Known about the structure:
By secondary structure, this protein is α/β, with parallel strands linked by helices. It has helices at 16-30, 47-54, 80-86, 96-101, 106-118, 131-135, 139-149, 156-159, 180-197, 200-205, 219-223, 240-247; strands at 4-9, 36-41, 59-63, 90-93, 122-127, 163-166, 208-211, 230-233.
Amino acid sequence: MRRRVIAGNWKMYKTLAETRAFFSAFTPLVANSRHCDIIIAPPFTAISTAAEAAKGTNIAISGQNVSWSKEGAFTGEVSAPMLTEAGCRYVIIGHSERRQLFRETDDNVAKKTLVALDSGLTPIVCLGEMQEDRDAGLAEEVLLRQFTGGPGALTPDEFSRILIAYEPVWAIGTGRTATPEIAATAHRFLRRCAGEQFSVHHASALRILYGGSVKPDNIQGLMAQEELDGALVGGASLDPKSFAAIVNFK
Ligand code: 13P
């Protein structure tokens, strides 16, 4: 049985004061939640504060992005060793907002994944098709391309140390969740890609999270699908009660 993961991606929200207030309210609500891994990805500036607040709890901290270089003259970038030092155990890589708004490519995703692994971080590699891809019947083709250019380019050992998040772009921030069946079909496809590129063992051990308008009122339906190993939550992770309701979906 794959252990489930519920991760919150705060995107560009929350000051330090708001981060502290969130943790004070959220930590007690999930203190007894042992059925899944709980992750929160604050903005860079709030990582240390979040890591401090999460010390001794069952909550792990993640970055939302990472440079593909370990150090250097790269103004505005943050490296994997810096994330580790600040208290991160995970890092989100290749989020669709990074791909669409900041022109990240599959090649960037592959490089960032390697540097993250090298620093001991667990990458959460995101992929997902756009509405027009799905309308044109190209969803699987896009997923295969993103898989092959990113996670598929790793060695089998490296691949066994990452998580994948399936985030259909049309479902992000739109309130249009993928139906549990659509999500499960995409997850099955990605698992098949993993099986073909690596091995059946790699495919069955791979944890794939679903992301896109996950809310307290749809989490149960999504988690009823065995194919879904958890969720990557945007908007609904900003409120402690709503994120706790998602974590405690059982
Ligand atoms: P929403 O849950 O706000 O749709 O965002 C999903 C997401 O992009 C998580 O990474």
